[in-house]
Amino acid sequence: MRRAALALLASTIVATAALPAPAQPRKRPPLQRQLDQALGLIEAQRARLDAQAAELAELRRRLDDQAQAMARAEAAPLPQLAAAPPRAPAVSAAQGAAPGAPGDPAGVLQPPLERVGQAPEDAEQPIQLAVLDSQASVVTRKGQLTGELQVDYARADRSRAVFRGVELVEAVLVGVFDINESRQDVITASAALRYGLTDRFELGIRTPFIHRADSSIIAPIAGSTNNDQAATIDSSVKGTGIGDIELTARYQLLSGGNGRPFLIGNLQGVIPTGTNPFAIRRDDLGRPTRAATGAGFWGIAPSVTAILPSDPVVLFGTLGYTFNLPRHVDTRIPPVVITYVDPGDAISGSAGIGISLNQRTTVNFGYAHTWSFGTRTRTMLIEPTAAWPGERETISRDLQIGRFLFGVTYRVTDRASLNWSVEVGATEDATDLRTVLRVPIVLLTGG
After folding, report:
1. What's the predicted TM-score (pTM) here?
2. Contact, 254 vs 202, CB < 8 A?
3. How far from the centroid of its chain's Cα atoms is residue 350's Cα?
4. What CA–CA distance (Å, rounded) separates 358 from 28?
5. Per residue in 119-139, pLDDT tens?
6. Distance CA 52, CA 39 (A)
7. Of 106, 123, 202, 433, which residue has the fewest beta carbons closer than 10 angstroms?
8. CA proximity to 353, closest of 309, 412, 397, 321
9. Which of 182, 252, 167 is nearest to 214 (CA)?
10. pLDDT, tens digit, for every residue of 218-254?
11. Residues ≥6 apart with Cβ < 8 Å to 98
């Protein structure tokens, strides 16, 4: 019996072990879940990119249509001015819609692709440089008449010590020491006109009105003569009147753009319409009774001006030569008679930079130098002597005239500007100070 029970139990265990185990639920690894999420995000991003591409294509099509319409409008003749279509306001980066904002669900700005802000109406005005005087801008356009008012003041103050005597040894001088002081103040008011015959050729005229005051003192140093008071000469004269008229012709050789400079050829002629210094009445000592307002000589000055715009900077330079024509003067300045004067010619050049602070204001810095050759003079004694029987010819020393330049240009309106410049003498021969205020005004625009 016991054996039968054990046999039944053993068969039951074997049968149970032979049955398959119940299926257990499988768990998905965590990496698989992350991969599924990433694929879902990629699909969503792809859908957004497709939507943005479609919107960009639509914007490109609209811009192409607008460009074609503008090209057709420019090509077609316009019998009369038509009203311009309303223009959408420009949108700056700070004012643009944020991604996902209403009207821009894809995060792309709908109306832009337009310039930030609006260029001022006078942005295309010709270049002007305050420190270049009559060569201050490019050539006037055809049919345009420009008037210019100018006021300038110049001051020259020189003091020199002159020794006349014998030098015995170093620092031991026997003779007379003279102190020569001279001061000159010149105020000039002038009016000028410039007219463009073509887009490359311009003619101009400038008429100055001058007030000049000269003062000079020649005095010996105390103790160098027995009669100091008698040796002192104090002379002060003034003169007011029209100055020398200037005629100009300018031709634009090269047009600027694409890294190329404006290259302008200038020709200036000076007509001696001012008071001739050799025709002024003088006293018994040969001193003039009034100051001259002109140079007394004809002059011709060709030059070349180069202006290179490189926004916001303008580089400029000039190179010129002045021919002064000689003449017979026959002027008595006791104890001699000046018979012939040949003023020295001069080489001049300048260079500088203009910096644009904004659309209306420009500052200029530069340097100008003039090398004036010596003046040739022929003189003879009023009462000839054996040592000086006839004419003698002398040549004065060359002059080196250097000036530092500073100027400001301010465009008041489309037709008027203010140009203010200052020149400070950099060499002994240069004028100490000169300041100029010019106001060019467009009187007649070209057709």
Report:
1. 0.67
2. no
3. 12
4. 68
5. 444 444 556 777 777 665 778
6. 20
7. 123
8. 309
9. 182
10. 665 554 444 444 455 667 899 999 999 999 999 999 8
11. 104, 107
- pLDDT single digits (tens) 268-316: 999 999 999 988 888 877 788 899 999 999 999 999 999 998 888 989 9
Asked whether 398 and 366 are in contact (CB, 8 A), the reply is no
Query: What is the Cα–Cα distance from 314 to 304, expressed in whole angstroms?
Result: 17
Beta bridge partners of 262: 307
Position 195 scores a pLDDT of 95
From residue 349, give the alpha-carbon distance in Å to each of 55, 130, 301, 364.
Answer: 59, 16, 12, 16
What six digits make up the tokens of 11? 């068969």
Q: What is the pLDDT of residues 304-349, one digit of tens each?
A: 999 998 888 989 999 999 999 999 998 888 888 899 999 999 999 9
Strands (E), 197-312: 201-220, 233-242, 245-254, 262-271, 299-310
**Cβ distance 350 to 303 under 8 Å?**
no
CA atoms within a 13 Å half-sphere pointing along the CA-CB vector of 7: 4
Calculate Rg over the CA atoms of the chain: 43
In this predicted structure, which of 124-128, 172-176, 423-427 has the lowest mean pLDDT?
A: 172-176
What tokens appear for 98 in the block?
């944020």
Taking the C-alpha atoms of residue 110 and residue 103, their distance in angstroms, rounded to an integer, is 8
**Residue in 183, 239, 246, 245 with CA at minimum distance from that of residue 211:** 239
Distance between CA atoms of residues 411 and 98, nearest Å: 39
- Other Cβ atoms less than 10 A from the Cβ of 393: the count is 11
Three-class SS state of 69: helix
| Measured distance CA(246)–CA(274) in Å, rounded | 11
Question: Per the structure block, which two tokens stand in for 55?
Answer: 């919107």
12: phi then psi, degrees, rounded to nearest 5: -65, -40
Instruction: Give the residue carrying structure tokens 């821009």.
Output: 104
Say how far apart CA 75 and CA 123 lie, in whole Å.
24
Collapse the DSSP code of 404 into the 3-class scheme (helix H, G, I; strand E, B; otherwise coil) and give the result: strand
User: What pLDDT does 143 receive?
Assistant: 92
